[in-house]
């Protein structure tokens, strides 16, 4: 009897140990891959572009034509699209060969293309003439192509590209799709691949064109649309790459998309976190400005130029802050707490009200604008509107601010702003403005400290935008607590909402790995 008891105890211990190992093992996500055997990835040629159809050789103008954003094959009609899918191979994402050969596509060469062999202009003849490799982007004349080596070296961006012969796929019977199973390291010095993520359905809807441009230059599997796959799926690349390889993630989007990716990186707990760069497509883009990647791009961004800029970027650390909201007890019942993370800034009051009004307008089904400049004009309109209405007047009467545990006396104000980075409000650097800016403590987004200041009105915001005023500085600190006694607009990194009364605490969470480009 005692032997049976001991046996059962041993079995339970083994099961407990297995359960502990399973719970400690990092959860891996499925990284889906497109089956290129099913055809090309077609997109519209665009209203101002032309191309020659690779099937019937007819000139396609504007929206009449379609182009594969991966390999560059063009088609003029639905019949030609079907024929191209059957007869012209698309840019493969995986092969089983030891080396990779050129993938030549006939005609439709870029402007000012030069032959890789004779260095003369090519693609200048009318119609489908000469050839371009959709991997290394080299162009050659019809008469020179036999003088080119069969093996492709992937061109100037070989350090960024994951070669097809380094990717192993598997078929998931459950999900009925191809998944990336393994990624091998190529024989390339200083290989540090980049993963492109963006959401074609967000913001000004420019990410779709940008993602297509990157598929043209890189392995299409390296380009992830967040409208189709989650950030966790995209970041599975970092688990699949060899441990010593540095993975870089380029986020094509605004501050909201960047924060989404940062949150996913934090949840996945990488041993070696990827380095994040930004290709700004949003409206504010304050973090992108600080990291040296500019104030914003349009859909016709030159991705080749951007990849050249990325080569000059250096790694850095960015503080991330936990924003914890504790609601008051209601009839003796405490509602659930809420936590978000801040990268750029937090504000309560008129600054957040303008953002909230703009956000509500953009969420309306009747809002038809997607251009960045029009969005900025609408944003300015809401700021002007509040100059007259002053909905956040006397905010100091319903808000208490504690910096490093000490309550701060507040002036007559309509907003309080807490900064992690130097820029705010689409490029304004408020902390260094005015006479007080010369003696203000230095800002650093990796020093574990926050800058806190007040705004007297929405007109005060307008003055800061043009450099005619300075903020009401409260100082620097490592922790901030806001006690809100009444409802007020609030925003974190441009994401606004109407905040109910309660206690809001900001504490340092961790540091994210970013890339900074010196301008």
Overview features:
alpha+beta, six-stranded antiparallel beta sheet, 11 helices, ATP binding, ATP-binding
In short:
This protein is of the alpha+beta class and 519 residues long. Helix content is 23%, strand content 27%. A six-stranded antiparallel beta sheet has the order 19-16-29-26-21-22, covered by helices on one side.
Number of helices: 11
- Assess the beta-strand content as a share of residues: 25-35%
What is the CA-CA span between the terminal residues? 78 Å
Strand order across the largest sheet: 19-16-29-26-21-22
Oligomer: single chain
Shape: globular
E-strand count? 29
Round the mean pLDDT to the nearest integer and report it: 86
Organism: Petrolisthes cinctipes (Flat porcelain crab)
Signal peptide: 1-16
Domain DAGKc: 189-327
InterPro entries: ATP-NAD_kinase_N, C1-like_sf, DGK, Diacylglycerol_kin_accessory, Diacylglycerol_kinase_cat_dom, NAD/diacylglycerol_kinase_sf, PKC_DAG/PE
Structure description:
The chain is of the alpha+beta class and 519 residues long. It has eleven helices and 29 strands. The protein has helices at 2-24, 78-87, 207-217, 231-234, 236-240, 255-268, 286-290, 303-310, 350-363, 372-389, 458-465, and strands at residues 32-33, 42-44, 50-52, 59-61, 66-68, 74-75, 104-106, 131-133, 139-140, 167-172, 177-183, 194-198, 223-225, 248-253, 275-280, 314-326, 329-330, 333-334, 338-342, 345-349, 399-403, 406-408, 415-419, 450-455, 472-477, 480-484, 488-492, 495-499, 502-516. The strands form eight sheets. Strands 19-16-29-26-21-22 form a six-stranded antiparallel β-sheet, with helices on one face. A six-stranded antiparallel β-sheet has the order 25-24-23-20-27-28. A four-stranded parallel β-sheet has the order 13-12-14-15, sandwiched between helices. A hairpin with a 2-residue loop joins strand 21 (399-403) and strand 22. Helix 9 packs across helix 10 and helix 10 crosses helix 11. The longest helix has 23 residues, at 2-24. It is globular and about 80 Å long. The termini are far apart. Residues 21-26 and 365-388 have low confidence and may be disordered. Belongs to the eukaryotic diacylglycerol kinase family.
């Amino acid at each position: 009897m005692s032997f049976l008891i001991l046996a059962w105890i041993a079995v339970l211990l083994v099961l407990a140990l297995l359960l502990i190992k399973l719970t400690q093992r990092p959860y891996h996500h499925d990284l889906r891959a497109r089956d290129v055997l099913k055809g090309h990835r077609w997109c519209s040629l665009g209203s101002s572009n032309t191309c020659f159809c690779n099937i019937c050789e007819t000139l396609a103008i504007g929206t009449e034509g379609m182009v594969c954003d991966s390999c560059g094959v063009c088609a003029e009609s639905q019949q030609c699209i079907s024929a191209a899918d059957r007869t012209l191979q698309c840019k493969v994402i995986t092969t089983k060969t030891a080396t990779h050969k050129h993938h030549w596509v006939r005609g439709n060469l870029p402007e000012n293309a030069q032959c890789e062999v004779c260095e003369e202009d090519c693609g200048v003849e009318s119609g489908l003439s000469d050839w371009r490799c959709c991997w290394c982007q080299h162009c050659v004349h019809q008469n020179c192509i036999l003088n080119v080596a069969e093996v492709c070296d992937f061109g100037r961006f070989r350090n960024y590209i994951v070669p097809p012969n380094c990717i192993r796929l598997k078929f998931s019977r459950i999900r009925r799709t191809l998944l990336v199973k393994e990624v091998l390291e190529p024989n390339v010095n200083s290989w540090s691949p980049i993963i492109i993520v963006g959401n074609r359905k967000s913001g000004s809807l420019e990410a779709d064109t940008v993602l297509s441009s990157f598929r043209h230059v890189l392995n299409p599997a390296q380009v992830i649309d967040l409208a189709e796959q989650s950030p966790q799926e995209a970041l599975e690349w970092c688990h699949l790459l060899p441990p010593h390889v540095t993975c870089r993630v380029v986020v094509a989007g605004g501050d909201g998309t960047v924060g989404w990716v940062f949150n996913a990186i934090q949840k996945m707990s990488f041993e070696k976190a990827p380095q994040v760069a930004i290709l700004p497509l949003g409206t504010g883009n304050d973090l992108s400005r600080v990291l040296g990647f500019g104030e914003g791009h349009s859909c016709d961004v030159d991705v080749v130029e951007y990849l050249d800029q990325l080569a000059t970027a250096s790694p850095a650390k960015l503080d991330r802050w936990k924003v914890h909201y504790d609601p008051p007890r209601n009839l003796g019942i405490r509602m659930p707490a809420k936590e978000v993370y801040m990268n750029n800034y937090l504000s309560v009051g008129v600054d957040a009200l303008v953002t909230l009004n703009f956000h509500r307008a953009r969420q309306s089904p009747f809002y038809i604008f997607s251009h960045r400049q029009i969005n900025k004009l609408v944003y300015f309109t809401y700021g002007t509107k509040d100059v007259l209405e002053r909905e956040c007047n006397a905010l100091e009467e319903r808000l208490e601010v504690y910096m490093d545990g000490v309550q701060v006396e507040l002036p007559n104000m309509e907003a309080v702003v807490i900064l992690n980075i130097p820029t705010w409000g689409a490029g304004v650097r408020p902390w260094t403005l005015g006479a007080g800016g010369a003696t203000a403590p230095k800002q650093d987004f990796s020093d574990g400290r926050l800058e806190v200041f007040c705004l007297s009105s929405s007109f005060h915001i307008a003055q800061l935008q043009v450099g005619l005023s300075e903020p009401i500085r409260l100082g620097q600190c490592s922790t901030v607590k806001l006690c809100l006694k009444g409802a007020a607009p609030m925003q974190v990194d441009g994401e606004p909402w109407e905040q109910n009364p309660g206690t809001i605490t900001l504490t340092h969470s961790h540091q994210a790995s970013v890339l900074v480009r010196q301008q």
